[in-house]
Amino acid sequence: MNQRFCQSMCFVAPPLVYWMVCRYFNLKAEKVWLLLLGSVVFWYAQSLGGVFRVAALTASFMMIAYTCTYLYKSLKSHTVTIASILYLGVLLPTFSIGYNQYTCLNYPRSGYYYLAPYNGILYINDTTNGDLVGLRDRYGLLVEPEYEYIRPGFVTQWGWTTSFLLQKDGYSQTYHIYDNKILPSDIKPELQSRLCKIITGYFDGFDEGCADRGEILVTDLQKDKTIGHVRVSMHGLAIWQYENSNFLPEDTTTVQVNEFLRTDSVDITEYENKNILCYAENIPNDSTAKYKVYVRLALDKTPTEKE
Known about the structure:
Keywords: Membrane, Transmembrane, Transmembrane helix. The chain crosses the membrane at residues 29-45, 79-99. This is Glycosyltransferase RgtA/B/C/D-like domain-containing protein. By secondary structure, this protein is α+β, with helices and mostly antiparallel strands. The protein is 31% helix and 28% strand. The protein contains five helices and 13 strands. Strands 10-9-8-13-12-11 form a six-stranded antiparallel sheet, covered by helices on one side. Strands 4-5-6-7 form a four-stranded antiparallel sheet, with no helix packed on it. A hairpin with a 5-residue loop joins β11 and β12 (273-283).
């Protein structure tokens, strides 16, 4: 799965095998350049998706099939010709790049790199949904391309990655490679998505300053678990924060329920100074509380309680 080795094998192997077959039967190897062009198109198809992938693979196969017809003209053997077409047009290029391009046709491969020790796991993109990414292996789809980022998770002492962090809407899920499944999380995806819309909707309502920040934390009080947590930094577009570090300083005073806590002129970073307003509320308020909602805003301007 090494990029350069795969590329070299994809370009060299089919013409070389074709030349060896012709030499075995004492034939002149004709149209080798067309076979090479078909291999280049096969390689290029990795970066395409949908109808473009299908078109590129079809064009590659037709070029190689046309070249192999010269074998039939000389040998008059259907068996040798058909076997050569399938081997040179499908199997050998697939072996060369290390995975089957004819699976996951809708999702182009994103970048030419691999992750040890599972060299067959690739990043893929959803061409209809922008830059959302997923995972596939040599044989097919592992994780749908619906995530903003996919990062290596747990790494063993030998440097092997055994899991990936699937990140979207400001939270991470863990995909375990050995079990081929996404591990369960306390975060509720529908709630998390709704929180994202709420906080971005707020920031869309005014001209936010550079790197203004907001946070919403929802806790299930009965289970004592966080079921929704978004952290966003505004830089013209919302940038979800997946790490706790370097976001907002922890409160020195615990925010009581239905209480506002204001902290002015706080150094967020070495170059950023913000005014922070915090608020906490239980839901419902008029009976046994089931959930706690905690909100923090960090703005250039002084945030109001109404906000």
